[in-house]
Amino acid sequence: MAATFGLSLALAMALGAASLATPGKALASEEGCPGLIARRASPIIPAALAQNEVGLTYVGHATFLIETAAGVKIATDYNDYVRPSVTPDIATMNRAHSTHYSTRPDPGIKTILRGWNPDGGRAPAYDQRFGDVRIRNVVTNIRQWGGESTIMEGNSIFVFEAADLCIAHLGHLHHTLTPEHLKQLGRIDVALVPVDGSYTLDIEGMMEVLSAMGPKLIVPMHFFGQSTLNRFLDRARSKSWDTARLDSASMTLSRETLPGTPRVVVLQGY
What we know:
Number of domains: 1
Signal peptide: 1-28
Organism: Enterovirga aerilata
Protein name: MBL fold metallo-hydrolase
Keywords: Hydrolase, Signal
InterPro entries: RibonucZ/Hydroxyglut_hydro
Largest sheet: 8 strands, mixed
CATH architecture: 4-Layer Sandwich
């Protein structure tokens, strides 16, 4: 989904992202990825996904639908503009813009996890189990609208652990990560990454983040047209990362099918 915002691109790109990157508070649990909670026995598994599989569908902008073998449905950066065709059980949200949170969520959603504190102050620390998935967050900071100042703990990287996979949605990341952030994240297998290079972190900064995190599979999101996406793909190829475009908005993930070296996979739709 193409979107325009009032934020000046020049101002956003000139802003020093490193100054934003103070570590957030510790997780409710210091146990990184994969945690023991993700290894517990799963509930009944529908035929659509095997126990060792997770379904991933790109809905658009920064929203993905994550589906587990036990039937848990999660929508990331759930908002009032771009939504999955099914009502998720769980919705995660972030603060940066109205395309990353909802003011009128579907009443059928069982759990809403906001990556910031709407009342100000410290962001919540999540570390919870829902069926066969563990969801936790690592808090980061964001720029004030217009870039004038920093909003502390205005964004969360949500980590979803299921089927022995650790999937990180970077949200509206505005700065590189500190060693403490990386420690909190733990092992990351799949990264869902904003690649616009302006409203979020610039391309070089995002490549630094990905190199530090070390995911095997990288799925771009939050890009405004093919030229923006291609700029990120060209930079990925310059690092000798494999790139591919699927003809579908969906893919099935499993630990057994992860590539041996970093691979960028573009799903249909934006």
